[in-house]
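User: I've been trying to design a sequence by hand for this structure and keep getting stuck. Would you show me what you'd pick, starting by listing the structure so we're on the same page?

Assistant: Good idea, let's start from the same input. This is the structure you sent:
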């Protein structure tokens, strides 16, 4: 094998390895939640799932309840954390008022950030 063919083969293997590494790390990043975000997901399942879509692809059971995966288009998640701490209220009568502890608000926002879609 000549030097040029060897270099092409080595470059091809390097590129294939990098692509495999990038795709496997990307899959792990999108599928696994941090412990904080996992706590936020648990809160969403306990408090919100009866009305809101809380995942990346589900539909909201309650008409008009926004899916959590698109909340960043409707509000600033940083200021939303403060609203969660102060007592979240809504204009529609079906939504109860929630008040989160500091850690629960951080966890809930971490989860929301993890599921936002472009």
């Amino acid at each position: 094998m000549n030097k040029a063919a060897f270099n092409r083969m080595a470059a091809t293997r390097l590129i294939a390895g990098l692509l495999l590494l990038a795709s496997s790390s990307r899959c792990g990043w999108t599928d696994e939640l941090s412990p904080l975000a996992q706590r936020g997901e648990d809160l969403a399942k306990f408090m919100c799932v009866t009305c809101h879509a809380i995942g990346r692809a589900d539909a909201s059971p309650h008409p008009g309840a926004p899916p959590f995966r698109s909340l960043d288009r409707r509000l600033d998640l940083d200021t939303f954390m403060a609203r969660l701490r102060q007592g979240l209220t809504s204009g529609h009568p079906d939504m109860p008022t929630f008040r989160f502890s500091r850690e629960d608000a951080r966890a809930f926002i971490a989860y929301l950030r993890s599921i936002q879609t472009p």
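That's my pick for every position. To get oriented when you compare it with your attempt: The two ends are 48 Å apart (CA to CA). The domain at 33-115 is CATH 1.10.760.10 (Cytochrome Bc1 Complex; Chain D, domain 2).
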